[in-house]
Amino acid sequence: MVRGDQQVEIFDPIAVQPEILIFAHTPNEVLYEYVLQVTGRSGSYFYQTKDISIAKVDSHGLLKVNSNRLGESKILVNDQRNFDIKSESKVMVVEPVGIFLDPCPVEALVKSRLEINVKMNGLMQDGSMVSINDCSKISFNVRIQDETVFKHIEVVAADRMGENCAKIILDAKKVGKSLIQVFYGELKSQEMKIFSFPQLTSLKKNLVLTKSSSYLFSLSDGPFLNSDIHSYVSEFRVNRHHIINVEHLEHNPLASKYTYKITCLDTNDFENEIEFTIWNRVTSQNKCPMKFNYKLGVSCLRPKILELSQLFVKNDGSDQEVYSNMKWNRPIKLNSKFAVANLNRDLNIQLLVKDS
């Protein structure tokens, strides 16, 4: 009996991604570039193209595709250790026949950039329609209704080839809304609304309350341009629901405010945080609205000092409301200032509670 050992290497088959690449034809002599993703076998590959007038490929899999030549070419990939092991990818350059602006995203923060995703369809030689993977070399004519709100910066390649073929970069210069439309020759996209919003803000960053006391907390700005109360979503997250209760009261579109009633249910000297999130509802014209966040610190503390002082009424009759029916479960220090009541006028007292 004869025995022996022999080393055997087993590799996965070669796989080239993507299998098909479709580029938009342009009259200008510019090059599309794309790196093929190849896996399997030894990891060392040899690349070649069938038609160098359409595309060229280097030893690292970098494709350079001529944008001004209609047609297609196969890209062959062989394993360097065994040329019988191979795979291929196809490159096509087609004539664009349609433009569409993807309504995701259509919102941006003021002083930031908005990236408009562009989709294009192309016509193959057999008359069938295909989605173009890369149209970033096309000289689009970008028209913006109000250029004081948005300014066109540039056209770049899409982040994920296959979903979109290019991105139009806009600068959100000021708060407002506008319309965008893209043209290429006789082709034109739909008109699409775009928005530049300010950040969600409030005059309060922290609240200090006692048991059973409440505060009407308001958020302003954010996605304020949609005045319909049913056009936005408001959520809030509280770490300890048994300590703090939050009620969403109303949205005032004219004042651009979102109002909540915050109540402390316990006074065991707890500190908590409420995170508010507001965004517009998803629609066919706004498929991925921005989410605006605001964090509010809330402390529920035991009162230690109670101060009474006179609150004078202004000439317009306005004053400051205070909470009544407040009951303390422990002795507190009472400080009062001299209060003077005028004839035929109410005596207004301001109540100030301190935790130290």
Automatic annotation (TrEMBL):
Domain of life: Eukaryota
Domain annotation NUP210 Ig-like: ranges: 101-184
Gene Ontology CC, one term: nuclear pore
PANTHER family membership: NUCLEAR PORE MEMBRANE GLYCOPROTEIN 210, NUCLEAR PORE MEMBRANE GLYCOPROTEIN GP210-RELATED
Protein's name according to its UniProt entry: Nuclear pore membrane glycoprotein
Originating organism: Brachionus plicatilis (Marine rotifer)
